[in-house]
Design a protein that fits this description.
The protein folds into two domains: 3-30; 35-181, Domain of unknown function DUF1254 (Immunoglobulin-like, Sandwich), CATH 2.60.40. The strands form two sheets. A five-stranded antiparallel β-sheet has the order 1-2-8-4-5, with helices on both faces. The mean pLDDT is 82. The chain is built from four helices and nine strands; from the N terminus they run ααββββββαββαβ. 30% of the residues lie in helices and 31% in strands. The radius of gyration is 22 Å and the shape is elongated.
């Protein structure tokens, strides 16, 4: 019977050590999140291509070798975000993540007219203002309403083989991630 209190005490001491180790390691992991790592290499609205060789240490690169990616940070308090791209690739998908890395919206080329990349990301208040006076240069744009003010837009492109690498590179290099001023 003396073994049970000893085992419980040993378990509590072990759990305490594990919890202390986690508390001491937490600060080193919190500065390595995607938002912090992306902000270290680019300003808001700058499109960053996730080049496996060049940025492997600064930003997370897709683990799938058939996926190429680019991202841009945005701040909707400055105005809406207008994202455009030209070209043709076999498949692309776009996701909007909040400041903490939670996915708040996803879409692919299969859900857009003609597979074109033309999106405007806005808050609810910006969407209400947009409805009252529609901007003519956003005629084909798909509107995405979100509660997120700061976030990351991630665009992934499927590259099935090396013959598509040139088209994927041109597509990702041609992405424009621009703020549209309030007003």
């Amino acid at each position: 019977m003396a073994r049970l209190p000893y085992a419980l005490l040993l378990g509590l001491v072990g759990a305490g050590i594990v919890h202390l180790a986690i508390l001491f390691l937490l600060p080193s992991y919190s500065v390595r999140d995607a938002w912090t790592r992306l902000s270290a290499v680019a300003e808001p609205y700058d499109t960053v291509r996730f080049d496996r060789e060049r940025l492997a240490q600064q930003v997370p690169v897709p683990a799938d070798p058939f996926i190429e990616a680019a991202a841009c940070r945005f701040d909707l308090s400055r105005g809406s975000l207008h994202v455009r791209g030209e070209g043709s690739v076999p498949f692309w998908s776009m996701s909007v993540y909040d400041h903490q890395g939670l996915n708040v919206f996803s879409i692919s080329d299969r859900a857009t007219p003609d597979g074109t990349l033309d999106f405007t990301v806005l808050t609810q208040a910006q969407m209400q203002r947009m409805r009252t006076r529609f901007a003519s240069d956003l005629g084909q744009s798909v509107f995405i309403e979100t509660d997120v003010e700061e976030g990351i837009l991630l665009l992934r492109v499927f590259v099935p083989d090396e013959t598509w690498e040139g088209a994927a590179t041109a597509f990702l290099n041609g992405i424009s991630c621009e703020p549209r001023p309030l007003g």
